[in-house]
Amino acid sequence: MQDKTMTTTDILEGRKAHIHEKGAVPFNIACEKQSVAGSVSQRACVFCGSRVVLYPIADALHVIHGPIGCAAYTWDIRGAWSSGPQLHRMSFSTDLQEKDVIYGGEKKLYQALVELIEHYRPKAAFIYSTCIVGLIGDDVEAICRRISAETGVETIPVHSEGFKGSKKDGYSAACNALNQLVGTGDTNGISPLSINILGDFNIAGETWVIKDYYERMGVEVVATITGDGRVDDIRRCHGAALNVVQCSGSMTQLATMMKEKYGIPIIRASYFGIEDMSKALYDVAEYLNDKTVMRNTQNLVRDEVSKLVPQLRKYKKDLKGKRAAVYTGGAFKALSMIRSLRTLGMKTVIAGSQTGNQQDYARLQELSDEGTIILDDTNPLELAKFLEEKKADLLIGGVKERPIAYKLGLGFCDHNHERKIGLAGFEGMLNFAKEVHGTVTSPVWKLAALHRKDVWSATSRQHRQGDES
Ligand code: SF4
């Protein structure tokens, strides 16, 4: 019998248009809208959006102008590794208090920047505005100009007041900030066979894996934006021949700005799964149109795939027919997830994202099997309801989705900021298979299912007794 608490989980009226079941009705989904009031969205705020994008620039100072909670919430937010400086891992804040809210926080910000820049001598400084700064109206831009002039360290305001939109608006604020650096460095000596890697954040060293592939192909990587990022590389990245954009939600705007200003073409890429990883490398080789690069790419893909495929077989055997749910930040990543799960013999029964657009969701539903639920900007109740209804064995998502899975007694795999295992590239696909296999086949879920059954029958009994009395 189905649990009564689940059957009473209704979808909010305003949310219905954001949910589509493939095959039930012609495809139509609402997206790119403000979250529905009353729905506890899984999305983060504008400030958080800009923080996750800029955070991996390792030799820059990152100062959060706001209450300490905003800084604590985003402290070391990504497992973004640096091959050199570690300054990005600090979370500096002006710690605005009641007095500052009344009299303004500009002096405090100025003083903090003078001290920090003198102490750390960073290559640049990013100053993030939070909700309260938007309300009290501190002129952060003027302080940044003054500090830049006095210290010679470029100090860039990030207009990321948390309340003024969604995480996606934070991406835009971050791109505007980065745009102030692009074009200010010397491009001499950059090869015509060169690219920038945009939208990879070096979680567990993934940017290094991807950069190594491109270098083995004979391609120069001018800047990695922002994984293991450096200010001086970003300053000269307008000298690259091509921008390769992953995580299209966060970096497309910067790539578009560079296309308009410097004529640099853009290609989209995903580095997850065998198909998408290989395609990303071949797309770059084709664009650069160089025989040696193409030959190197063919050799690389052949070598890596022939090593990987036999290793995946043993995982596939156990995972065949298992059902997964995928909830990601941008929808482009969800597409790669579906393909990777298919490689492992698994079926995706729910696929959703926080910030997908019409085009992304159309591709998502095209790729999905009949009956797959597609969700835009979901909330915990909806997600729990569909996980139950679709009998998912596994949820793949980020830190905010983890407790939902565990409360339901389901396996969970982190595919977002906090993980310590690289999932990009060919070796990443093997890690992904190991992660999924270890989670789905863990015996602990059988115990959790028993416990859940007890809880449900007790809940149903209480409901029945309530109905009878
Ligand atoms: S910027 Fe606003 S919404 Fe974001 S963490 Fe700070 S207070 Fe919360």
Automatic annotation (TrEMBL):
Pfam families registered for this protein in UniProt: Oxidored_nitro (PF00148)
Span of the signal peptide: none
UniProt keyword terms in alphabetical order: Nitrogen fixation, Oxidoreductase
Keyword Oxidoreductase part of the UniProt annotation: yes
Domain Nitrogenase/oxidoreductase component: 45-440
Pathway annotation: Cofactor biosynthesis; Fe-Mo cofactor biosynthesis
Coiled-coil blocks: none
Record-level Gene Ontology MF annotations: nitrogenase activity
Sequence similarity: Belongs to the NifD/NifK/NifE/NifN family.
Function as written in the Swiss-Prot or TrEMBL entry: This protein may play a role in the biosynthesis of the prosthetic group of nitrogenase (FeMo cofactor).
Protein name stated in the entry: Nitrogenase iron-molybdenum cofactor biosynthesis protein NifE
